Amino acid sequence: MRTMGRIGLGVVAVILVLAAVVLGRTFAATPPTSGDVSGITVAAPLTVDVTGAAQRLSQAIQIPTVRHQDPAEGVDAEWTRLHALLAANYPAAHAAMRREELASRTLVYTWPGTDGRLAPIVLMAHQDVVPVTPGTEADWTHPPFGGVIADGAVWGRGAIDDKGSLVGIFEAVELLAKQGFQPRRTVMVVSGGDEEVIGQGARAAAALFKARGIKAEFVLDEGMAVISDNPISGGRVAIIGTAEKGYGTLRVTAKAPGGHSSAPPADGGGVAVLSRAVAAIADDPFPLAFTGPGADMVKSLAPEAPFVVRMAVANEWLFGRLLAGQAAATPAGAALLHTTIAPTMLKGSPKENVLPQDATAWINYRIAPGDTSATVMTRAKAAVGALPVTLAWNAPPNEPSPVSSTSSWGWKVVAATASAVADAPVAPSLVTAGTDSRFLTPVAKDVYRFQPLEMSLKETAMIHGTNEHMTLKNLEKMVQFYARLVVTAAQ
User: Fold this and answer.
1) Which of 16, 154, 179, 241 makes an SS bond possible with 223, Cβ 3.0 to 4.6 Å?
2) Which domains, and CATH codes, for the chain?
3) What is the pTM for the complete model shown?
């Protein structure tokens, strides 16, 4: 009994020590460096013509610069119309900036600074939009390419992704140019013509920068926004993407003799073999890891979160798995913490009673920083084992981007301006989709992804979906943000 008592006292002592360590680390935790914007004085707000900006965004939406998966379906004349509209609506901006056109109708503008020793800043927003799913037009409150201004918003495809940013940038430059502002640091605007199909426009811009020896101080593109109901603290937060996932689609093919379906082979044929291979790959997910930009977001928001979250973050050594599990409670949360595997397309026989001679599946991967296309392929091959299938990339994959700094001057300028315009704390995170900015990483010190529009998590579903719209309040914030960012960074 005495021995048991000593063991019990020992357990209690260990628990008390552990509790003391956990609480001590919790109360001693310091805010992450991403919140430090010392030394940055954000430019004062400007007067914005929101009504005029809405009308000009409406006009841009009415030009259907739709990129389809098949390039032949694109209508090049629509890009010509959009370019003419930009020139007509923003004469001061076009007078101040030099304009160049590259591959895929991509535009590069240069507003020369007075001090050539300073590295330029680059603002990005693409011109193209995704199609509207045929048969869903009637589900829209207003016609998807009508550019209707109603209920305090501009409605239509591209209002947010990404003509809202494009118009916001030009409204800001026009406003500053009319006021006689002359940037000390060169300001560049890159507007890709084929972002939605991961095309050649941004690659051409990167090649141009490289040929001219341009190394940007920072690049800012779309990708993240102000979320009004973030699940960590429950409040508003301006989330800035510091990296984005890589992209690759794996083609899995099962060859088979084919033949009549009345006499299937013992293994079930190509479709059966293919299904086992796809299931094997999908059933071997990449492990969740509380690391990288996704985890950085949680850590940055911890000071605003309930005590339990602060305690877990301050004691990651003990609660790391729990944090990863909680963050992965939703598919969107899980996507921040690992490489995702998504079987998306299948092809088999052209007729129901014919065994296919080959069956093919396509599996889309969004590759997290820390993984590569090589590690993805290795894992997929291990998962299928001896199954008679071949694995190949459908197209050369894009690797994950580097993770940009959360302590550099560029970060501080973007973060301070975002916080001032949004009136919200700032946190870094990982963009799980893709942007044109990935191609500019070799020609920039840092690359960030942020639009200053405020949405709830539910409202983000309108991007690439039905009833996409930009509220006038958000449009005003867009213009304010880009104008104040240019003045803050380039004055």
Assistant:
1) 241
2) 50-242+401-490 (3.40.630.10), 246-393 (3.30.70.360)
3) 0.90
